[in-house]
């Protein structure tokens, strides 16, 4: 059997799965190729013959994916902003649309001479590492409440050779060195913002596999940590510094209102090429 035939069958199998969120056309083919590449340990040549042993291993990974297990938990990796990241079960999987959050920080930091960036709820370190890679002169600190996430972020930084990024354990700003108070140029935050009442509506591949603390903060409206971050950001931002928060479109107006009431200026909702998230930006007055 050639790889193309194997992929055709795998794509059909994934399309039939009710545990997968079929939100993007063509996603199933991409995932089948990624899983086969993982089994092969190389790029997929669709014209190449596939051995029986490879077919058996591939079939096992396909069973796991069809049951809803995310591809990144099977392959233990994810690509973000051109970086190859280690991912482990228990650590939030970075989304492609969150690259826009990193972009919003990068464009602001490049204008600074000795920029400082803080990434809250950093998970695998995706946003923090993208900033560290694109702005080598920046000092980057990522924080996360989960020890497993901080360990993964540390390993990603070492493997990528990004010595300008460090990761600390703590809720929101609790792990950030106090010496950085009032000197941070940009703060990014992709918070858990799902209300408890909406957890049951999430796709199975999210609700059953990703850690609940990365999905919700346990508050009725899902914005408890957002309000805390907005309130505390004034202690950490330098005058003219920016707070950048990624949320779903239906929560953007509420978050923007809260940012304005806190005293941030130039507050607005921005979005990249994806339509399923918004990045709220606001600046501390000079």
Give me the strand/helix succession: HHHHEEHEHEHEEHHEHEE
Shape-level CATH architecture of the largest domain: 3-Layer(aba) Sandwich
Estimated structural class = alpha/beta
Characterize the biggest β-sheet.
7 strands, mixed
What would the principal axes of the Cα set say about the shape? globular
CATH class of the largest domain: Alpha Beta
Strand order of the largest sheet: 5-4-3-6-7-9-8
Oligomeric composition of the shown chains: single chain
Q: Tell me the strand percentage band.
A: 15-25%
How many individual β-strands? 9
Measure the end-to-end span.
65 Å
**CATH superfamily assignment of the largest domain?**
Vaccinia Virus protein VP39
Number of domains: 2
Characterization of this structure:
There is one protein chain. The chain is an alpha/beta fold and 286 residues long. It has 2 domains: 3-68, no CATH class; 82-283, 3-Layer(aba) Sandwich (Rossmann fold), CATH 3.40.50.150. It has helices at residues 3-16, 27-40, 52-66, 71-75, 99-109, 126-134, 147-160, 204-207, 224-236, 252-261, and strands at residues 77-80, 83-86, 116-120, 139-144, 165-169, 184-189, 237-247, 265-270, 278-283. It has a 7-stranded mixed sheet with strand order 5-4-3-6-7-9-8, with helices on both faces. Helix 1 packs parallel to helix 3, helix 2 (27-40) crosses helix 3 (52-66) and helix 5 (99-109) runs parallel beside helix 6 (126-134). The radius of gyration is 20 Å and the shape is globular. The mean pLDDT is 95.
């Amino acid at each position: 059997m050639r790889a193309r035939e194997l992929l055709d069958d795998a794509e059909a199998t994934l399309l039939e799965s009710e545990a997968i969120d079929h939100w993007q056309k063509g996603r199933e083919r991409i995932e089948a190729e990624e899983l086969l590449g993982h089994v092969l340990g190389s790029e997929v040549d669709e014209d190449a013959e596939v051995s029986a042993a490879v077919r058996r291993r591939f079939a096992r990974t396909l069973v796991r994916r069809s049951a809803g297990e995310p591809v990144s938990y099977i392959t233990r990796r994810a690509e973000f902003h051109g970086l190859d990241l280690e991912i482990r079960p228990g650590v939030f999987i970075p989304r492609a649309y969150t690259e826009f959050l990193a972009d919003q920080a990068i464009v602001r930091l490049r204008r600074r001479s000795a920029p400082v960036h803080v990434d809250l709820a950093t998970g695998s370190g995706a946003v923090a590492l993208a900033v560290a890679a694109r702005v080598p002169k920046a000092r980057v600190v990522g924080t996360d409440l989960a020890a497993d996430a901080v360990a993964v972020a540390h390993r990603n930084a070492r493997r990528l050779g990004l010595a300008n990024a460090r990761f600390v354990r703590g809720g929101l700003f609790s792990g950030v060195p106090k010496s950085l108070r009032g000197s941070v140029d940009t703060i990014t935050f992709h918070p858990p913002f799902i209300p408890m009442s909406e957890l049951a509506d999430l796709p199975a591949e999210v609700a059953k596999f990703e850690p609940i603390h990365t999905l919700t903060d346990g508050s009725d409206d899902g914005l408890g940590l957002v309000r805390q971050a907005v309130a505390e950001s004034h202690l950490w931002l330098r005058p003219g510094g920016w707070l950048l928060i990624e949320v779903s479109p239906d929560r953007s107006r509420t978050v923007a209102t809260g940012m304005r009431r806190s005293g941030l200026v130039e507050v607005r909702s921005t979005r990249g090429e994806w339509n399923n998230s918004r990045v709220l930006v606001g600046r501390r007055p000079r």
